[in-house]
Design a protein that fits this description.
By secondary structure, the chain is α+β, with helices and mostly antiparallel strands. 25% of the residues lie in helices and 34% in strands. It has helices at 12-16, 31-42, 98-110, 130-138, and strands at residues 2-6, 47-55, 58-67, 81-89, 120-126, 142-148, 151-157. Strands 1-2-3-4-5-7-6 form a seven-stranded mixed sheet, with helices on both faces. Strand 2 (47-55) and strand 3 (58-67) form a beta hairpin.
């Protein structure tokens, strides 16, 4: 069973030490960098939700969800939505269904509208990250034609 949990003083190092394969590192920032981004977003009026992804009692991944971010080059509708800014599953736990289960939990969380109402959820991915694209499409995300920093934008209406 997958759960999303707060990052705490007790689990932070475990989360910082999770990593993707060497080949995948060009697709996602480190978890330490992502937690630092959460801090920067929070102290500049943003609404970040960084979570550790657990399978039972084992940390297996990380996700950073944001609400109405405005400090980056963004798609035209970003102020009306949540963004899955980062998502990773540790290389030791990939291809076991954890990414799919995590996406299910992530979308459930977003649909509670924890920071406020929204019409969309969006994310970006690199064109050659075929596995990520397939996962996102299976949840209903569709490319909207925008490209930001060489990453494709995919969106789903909430």
């Amino acid at each position: 069973m997958i759960t999303l949990r707060k990052i705490t003083l007790d689990n932070r190092r475990d989360i910082f030490n999770l990593s993707v394969t060497e080949e995948q590192r060009r697709f996602v920032a480190s978890n330490l960098s992502s937690v630092a981004s959460s801090y920067v977003l929070a102290t500049n009026g943003g609404h970040p939700y960084p979570f550790a992804i657990y399978a039972h009692e084992d940390p297996v991944g990380f996700v950073l969800i944001t609400y109405q971010i405005t400090s980056y080059d963004l798609p035209s509708f970003s102020e009306d939505g949540y963004c899955i800014l980062r998502l990773m599953i540790d290389h030791r736990y990939q291809n076991q269904g954890y990414g799919r289960e995590a996406m299910h939990q992530i979308m459930e969380f977003i649909r509670t509208f924890p920071a406020g109402p929204a019409r969309f959820c969006w994310l970006t991915y690199k064109q050659d990250n075929v596995n990520a694209k397939k996962l996102y499409e299976s949840f209903g995300f569709r490319d909207n034609g925008e490209v930001i920093h060489d990453e494709y934008v995919a969106v789903i209406e909430l």
